[in-house]
Design a protein that fits this description.
Blueprint lengths: L18 H4 L5 E3 L3 E9 L3 E7 L9 E6 L6 H12 L9 E11 L4 E10 L8 H4 L5 H21 L12 E3 L5 E3 L25 H4 L6 H18 L14 H5 L3 H6 L7 H10 L10 H5 L2 H4 L6 H36 L1
Helix pairs in contact: 4-6
Length: 342
């Protein structure tokens, strides 16, 4: 789901008489207490709004996921709420409340809708920072990977496997801290094999493509491996992890030298070694989170680069905003020309 990632302060102190000047007139009111004043995104199953409670003097902002009335996806959303509710970690999106509520639109129309009240992550999806700017390189990627490992470890410790780790499901909070989001495909079965094929095809482990029973924890490690490659280079390592893929076919043959010979990026030997293990065809050869932490590549992490990474996020975010403004301007120009011709 695409989101408008305009930067908005998530907590602020506002005098009562100034409040109406700060927040626009709400587009809708949920359960008579939450004002939804900006649409952040819209997908096939739900719409996402930015909102707050006027009674909350901290004026904390939240994301409200409103399920579309013509979809029968309530079970999927309930799973997301259940899974997120079991995890309390700074690198995993927080869920605050969910249920059926009365949604009153500005025109007075009232409908019942299932909704989820989530943590608002104002700086958007990590992939947005990559599309226009390229990958982050290895030094910054180690810092991002460390946060992803922390979040994923918290999931597995809570007996939850994500099953859909990918660049679209990583977002940044108000402090540019990395957060794992979207647990609609998650399950609380970390032991024993799973049989349901779920996830994003480019990131899904080969055993899922082969429709074989799989271990959720091992499939998460595979997806994380693909994700960190994308974060470093700005591109996918292969199209799909299947035997007839022009690149992954070498992994099937354990011919990693031929795989890397086809790549244009100059990556460190320590990263190649770690990546090779994370995307191994044989899931028993994939490392645990603890083993990834102990890898030579992760041991080269430099925490003193954290402030520089935040600055890099801000630089990239500015470019993303400028590009979006250009797109909006072009659409307006085309629209005005069409109106004149009509």
């Amino acid at each position: 789901m695409e989101e408008d990632n305009n930067s908005v302060v998530t907590e602020m102190e506002i005098d009562d008489e100034e409040e109406d000047n700060i927040f626009p007139t709400p587009l809708a009111i949920l359960d008579g207490k939450y004002h939804l004043f900006q649409k952040l995104g819209e997908g096939s199953t739900a719409s996402v709004y930015l909102g707050h409670s006027p009674c909350d003097k901290t004026h904390t902002l939240y994301s409200f996921k409103i399920v579309n009335p013509d979809k029968n996806d309530k079970t999927l959303f309930e799973r997301e709420v259940e899974m997120l509710g079991q995890i309390d970690h700074e690198n995993v999106m927080k869920v605050y409340h969910s249920g059926m509520g009365k949604l009153q639109k500005a025109n007075g129309e009232i409908n019942e809708r299932y909704y989820i009240m989530l943590e608002y992550l104002p700086h958007g999806e990590l992939l947005d920072y990559i599309y226009l700017n390229g990958g982050f390189g290895e030094e910054y990627a180690r810092l991002i990977m460390n946060d992803l490992l922390n979040g994923l470890e918290a999931c597995h410790a809570s007996v939850i496997v994500n099953r859909d780790i990918n660049g679209d499901n990583i977002m940044l909070d108000k402090d540019y801290k990395v957060k794992l989001v979207d647990f609609g495909f998650a399950t609380n079965k970390t032991q024993g094999k799973l049989t349901t094929f779920l996830g994003t095809l480019n990131y899904a482990a080969p055993e899922l493509h082969l429709h074989q029973p799989y271990y959720g924890v091992c499939s998460d490690i595979f997806s994380l491996g693909v994700t960190i490659y994308v974060i470093i280079t700005g591109s996918l390592p292969f199209k799909y992890p299947v035997i007839n893929d022009s690149l992954y076919k070498y992994i099937f043959r354990n011919d990693y030298n031929s795989f890397w010979a086809k790549k244009k990026f100059q990556l460190s030997p320590s990263f190649k070694e770690l990546f090779n293990s994370m995307i191994a065809m044989n899931y028993t050869q994939r490392p645990s989170i603890a083993e990834i932490r102990k890898s030579k590549w992760m041991r080269e992490m430099k925490e003193e680069l954290i402030p520089q990474l935040k600055t890099e996020y801000m630089r990239r975010e500015l470019i993303v905003k400028q590009k979006r403004e250009e797109i909006i301007m072009k659409k307006n120009i085309v629209g005005n020309q069409c109106n004149k011709e009509n």
